[in-house]
């Protein structure tokens, strides 16, 4: 749809300063406040109109078409003004964006976003707080610290005193943490902390090892590389048929690593694997880590929504025994990207992150405004958005139980889809889930495995090119599969059945096309499974 953005009146401003050569109406300030309000309102109206009119998650435009539209924009051309620039952006970006709120979007770990969080996003973007130091953020820092404490409490960590206390003060106990850009950064920081703990104990980099299953997130191996660990630093631990870590296999891996003279600096358990949505047995894993004194990190980027579930919280039992936990609020708390956090059981574990600069966060000096609460001391980032505001407003608006009910809704939907597919003649379920994923293949009786393998990317491409539905693909036990990641609590079983029918139709069409291509004579009407031979047809 064409942009509905109306004209935005130009602000009335005071005289520019002598010698000013820039557009004094360009920046958000008191003199442009009314224009700001009109501009945001116009953008919101345009997006709202698109939300009402959109009928599929993607326009279906080809990459060639989209590249042509992007290349046609002259970024060095004359300025068009705010109104025209936003209209152009709406027709380019919004028109061809992927809409995660559409119930036929079932591909990746992208969720529709909570309305209160979107309102908070508008507020924090305009004010543009950076929560790296207290003198840039004041109450924003305190609000983020409160949310860190809240999350730690939900995990089951002990929270004592002010989480803003100097991370270098080893006499302080209790949980702490920091908001991050996403699960990858949270995992990286957790493994950095584990590496530093081992390094300071005298362990050489070349002998450091990390234990995780093959189903663990790719960021674990990537983090090991970035941390300077050897190529074989990440050791795969055996898992059961659904990809959950086997405690016996972990025990053997811990013993084997010690026998080789290497040191396990961390065990990474996953609470919600990306492909299957399965949760490792956290309690038994924690038993083994405690027995040998090894850092346990739980990657709960996907499964963290269970922290507020009223029916499935028990699936995370044992998470409170971890040394560190990754949570991604922009997955299962329905927050706009980005909103993640790393939570540690002991705040002193964050000490290796601290780095002091005279111009930013000098060490405590007389007269400095509360240097013990500068969050740059515990973050890998310096400038950092106040993304915590979105979660704060969501919790105040909907309540933790309200968010938990939405988490339960997507898990219930996945369970219903699994039940549906158990008796489907064409679609074969692959494995189970603890959360909201569905893995399956199109493989009716008589279709060999190799041909079913080849159909997986073809079906996905057909659906993507149409724009009508988006599904993901992955590989399980050497076989490609289609994957539904259900993170829309408003989607219904009928919606998902519609997606599966599109999958079925696409597969039928692809097979029919192959049959036509293989026919020596003219096309026959009974080649397509939905076109029966007509009476008296001589062909």
From TrEMBL:
Query: Which cofactors does the annotated protein need, by name?
Result: pyridoxal 5'-phosphate
Biased composition regions of type Basic and acidic residues, renumbered to the chain: 523-539
The protein's matches in Pfam families, at most eight in alphabetical order, are given as: Pyridoxal_deC
List the residue ranges of the region (Disordered): 1-23, 518-539
Q: Which SUPFAM superfamilies match?
A: PLP-dependent transferases
Q: Which domain of life is it from?
A: Bacteria
Q: Which InterPro entries match?
A: Aromatic_deC, PyrdxlP-dep_de-COase, PyrdxlP-dep_Trfase, PyrdxlP-dep_Trfase_major, PyrdxlP-dep_Trfase_small
User: Which UniProt keywords are given for this protein, alphabetically ordered?
Assistant: Decarboxylase, Lyase, Pyridoxal phosphate
Q: Which PANTHER family match?
A: CYSTEINE SULFINIC ACID DECARBOXYLASE, GLUTAMATE DECARBOXYLASE-RELATED
Q: Which family does it belong to?
A: Belongs to the group II decarboxylase family.
Q: What is this protein called?
A: Pyridoxal phosphate-dependent decarboxylase family protein
């Amino acid at each position: 749809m064409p942009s509905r953005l109306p004209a935005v009146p130009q602000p009335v401003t005071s005289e520019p300063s002598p010698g000013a050569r820039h557009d004094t109406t360009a920046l958000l300030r008191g003199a442009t406040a009314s224009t700001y309000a009109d501009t945001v309102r116009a953008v919101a109206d345009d997006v709202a109109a698109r939300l009402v009119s959109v009928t599929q998650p993607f326009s279906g435009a080809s990459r060639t078409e989209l590249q042509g539209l992007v290349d046609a924009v002259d970024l060095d051309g004359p300025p068009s003004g705010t109104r025209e620039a936003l209209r152009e952006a709406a027709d380019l970006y919004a028109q061809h964006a992927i809409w995660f709120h559409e119930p036929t979007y079932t591909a990746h770990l992208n969720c529709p976003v909570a309305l209160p969080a979107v309102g908070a996003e508008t507020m924090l973007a305009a004010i543009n707080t950076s929560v790296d130091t207290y003198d840039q953020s004041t109450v924003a820092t305190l609000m983020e610290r409160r949310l860190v404490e809240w999350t730690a409490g939900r995990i089951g960590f002990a929270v004592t005193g002010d989480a803003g206390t100097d991370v270098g003060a080893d006499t302080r106990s209790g949980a702490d943490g920091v908001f991050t850009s996403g699960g990858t950064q949270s995992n990286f920081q957790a493994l950095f902390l584990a590496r530093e703990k081992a390094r300071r104990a005298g362990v050489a980099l070349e002998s450091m090892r990390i234990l995780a299953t093959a189903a663990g997130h790719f960021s674990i191996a990537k983090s090991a590389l970035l941390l300077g660990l050897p190529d074989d630093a990440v050791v795969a631990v055996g898992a059961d048929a659904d990809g959950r870590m086997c405690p016996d296999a972990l025990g053997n891996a811990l013993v084997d690593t010690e026998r080789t003279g290497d040191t396990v600096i961390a065990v990474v358990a996953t609470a919600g694997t990306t492909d299957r949505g399965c949760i490792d047995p956290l309690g038994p894993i924690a038993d083994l880590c405690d027995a040998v004194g090894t850092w346990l990190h739980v990657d709960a980027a996907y499964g963290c929504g269970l922290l507020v579930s009223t029916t499935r919280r028990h699936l995370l039992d044992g998470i409170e025994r971890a040394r560190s936990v990754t949570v991604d609020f922009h997955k299962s708390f329905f927050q706009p990207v980005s909103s993640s956090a790393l939570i540690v059981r002991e705040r002193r574990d964050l000490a290796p992150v601290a780095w002091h600069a005279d111009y930013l966060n000098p060490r405590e000096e007389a007269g400095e405004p509360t240097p013990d609460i500068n969050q740059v001391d515990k973050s890998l980032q310096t400038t950092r958005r106040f993304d915590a505001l979105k979660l704060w407003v969501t919790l105040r608006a909907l309540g933790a139980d309200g968010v938990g009910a939405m988490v339960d809704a997507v898990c219930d939907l996945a369970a219903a889809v699994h039940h549906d597919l158990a008796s489907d003649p064409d679609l074969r379920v692959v494995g189970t889930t603890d959360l909201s994923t569905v893995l399956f293949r199109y493989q009716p009786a008589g279709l060999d495995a190799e041909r079913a393998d080849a159909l997986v990317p073809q079906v996905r491409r057909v659906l993507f090119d149409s724009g009508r539905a988006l599904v993901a693909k992955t590989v399980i036990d050497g076989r490609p599969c289609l994957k539904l990641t259900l993170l829309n609590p408003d989607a219904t079983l009928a919606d998902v059945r519609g997606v599966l029918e599109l999958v079925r139709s696409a597969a039928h069409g692809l097979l029919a096309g192959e049959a036509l291509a293989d026919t020596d004579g003219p096309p026959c009407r009974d080649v397509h499974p939905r076109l029966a031979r007509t009476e008296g047809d001589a062909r």
